Every structure is written in C-alpha cells, then in structure tokens.
Amino acid sequence: MKTSRATLQRTDRIKEIIEKYRGEPGALIPVLQEVQEAFGYLSRDSMGQVAEGLGLPRAQVFGVASFYAQFYLKPRGQNMIRVCLGTACHVRGAEKVLAALGEALGIGPGEVTADGKFTLERVACLGTCGLAPAVMVNEEIHGRMDAQRAEELLHSLRN
What we know:
Layout: H1 5-21, H2 28-39, H3 44-54, H4 58-67, E1 79-84, H5 87-91, H6 94-105, E2 111-112, E3 118-123, E4 135-137, E5 140-142, H7 147-158
C-alpha cells in the first residue's frame, strides 16, 4: 500500500507534537489539543498515533477525546458558528436565531455545510449574558441577535 505525502506529513507532525511532551505526566490532553489545532479535528488515525506515541491504550485516548467538548472527532467547517442557549439567551429568543441560521445554512446543529465553510453548534453559555442572545463566529461575539440579524451576519460571512 502506497502512503501519500500528506499522510507522511501528518504522521511527522504528530510525532513532533508527541516528542514535545515526552515523559511529562498528563501529556495526553495537551497533545490532543495540539494535534487538533494542527489538523482541525482528531481523526481515528491521529488518535491511534497519539496512543502509540504515548504508550497508552487507544481506548483511553478515544475516551478522553470523546469526553471533552473541546475535541472534535470529525472535520469542522472553516467558520464555527456557535449559538448560545444559556438562560438569558434562551429567554430572549436564541432558539429562533439557531433555527434561522440552520435554515439559511441548510444544516442542523453539529453539522458542516457541504462546501465545508460552516459548522453550526449550540452551546450552553458564551458568558455574554448582557448581549443576549449571542452568537460567536470563530472568536468574535455578535450580540443582541434576532433571526434577521443572524441572516445578515451569515450573508456578510459568505461575501
């Protein structure tokens, strides 16, 4: 079986990350964070390489990766759209904002658009209750959203 250049580069990068933490107690989470940062998500293959490189059972690596919400086990879109559904946002109409974004994108929460440009997520709290309802696009907060403003935001992101 022939190995692609991209696969070899991925393997080399994962080895570099593992070496950085070799021998450190509690290295698994920082290694997984860096692998995810490098590739956007944690593939089954990359988790297997982490397990092998750290001398851990695959089940332990998968267990940690699947337990924490910060880790993604499938590819994400280029732009992460997170809709806050905390109490303040919920009371002020966040479900309508989520529905409008989902309809405009043609996806539901936790899904990626076919073109790979957007992932839509529901989150418990963004910590911006004074701006409720709030939406976070990548690392930028957009407050006082409603369905119309959400669609306008999405339109600006597409252009």
